[in-house]
Amino acid sequence: MNHAAKRQKKKVSRKAAMKLRARPAKAGVKSARAAPADYNAQLFQKGLQLQMAGRTGEAEAIYRQILAAKPSHADANHLLGVLAKQAGNPGAAHELISKAINTDPTQPIYHNNFGSVFGDLGRLDEAAVHFRKAITLKPDFVDPHFNLAGVALQQGQLAEAAEGYRKVLALCPDHAEALFKLAFVQHRLGRLDEALAGYQSTLAANPHHADAHNNLCALFYALGQPNEAFPHGCAAVTLKPGFEPFWNILATSLVTLQFTSADDDIFEILERLLDRPKVNTNPIARPILSALRCHAKSGPVLKQACDDGADAVAIAAELSTIPLLLRLLSLSMINDATLERALTRLRRDNLLALTENAGRAPDAAQAALPFLCALALHCFTNEYVFAESDEETAAVGTLEAMIGEALTSGEDPPLVAVAALGAYRPLHRLPVADALVGRDRRGDIAAVIERQIVEPRVEAALRADIPRLTPIDDTVSQSVRAQYEENPYPRWIKTRLESTPRRIKDVLQGAPLYFDLGDAAPSEAPDILVAGCGTGRHAITTAANFRDAKVLAVDLSLASLGYAVRQSRALGVPDIEFAQADIMELGRLDRRFDVIESSGVLHHLGDPLAGWRVLTGLLKPGGFMKIALYSELAREPVVAARKLIAEKGYGNNAEDIRRCRAEIRQLAEDGNEVMAELAGLLDFYGLSNCRDLIFHVQEHRFTLPQIEEALRSLGLDFLGFELDDVDAINRFRAANPEPGALSSLQKWHEFELENPRTFARMYQFWCRKPAC
Question: What is the model's pTM?
Answer without folding.
Answer: 0.86
